[in-house]
Task: inverse folding
């Protein structure tokens, strides 16, 4: 079963546009929005497994130039 999540991304200074462009090109990313508040970007993803989600967040998204921190909310079935 696929794992869907929202990843809130905090970006340093003037890196928001470049981080946005880079993240939109990452496989498994469904949507990226710039937002106001405590984070700069909200990323919607869908991965096949928790391991794939882990790799996506820890290596791909946190590896983007300018990304300071992330917070991940996994979508639950009710």
Result:
């Amino acid at each position: 079963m696929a794992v869907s999540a929202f990843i809130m991304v905090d970006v340093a200074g003037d890196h928001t546009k470049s981080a946005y462009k880079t993240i939109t090109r990452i496989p498994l990313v469904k949507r990226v929005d710039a937002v106001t508040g405590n984070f700069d970007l909200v990323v919607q993803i869908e991965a096949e497994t928790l391991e794939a989600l882990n790799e996506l967040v820890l290596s791909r998204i946190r590896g983007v130039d300018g990304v300071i921190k992330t917070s991940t909310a996994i979508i639950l079935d009710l």
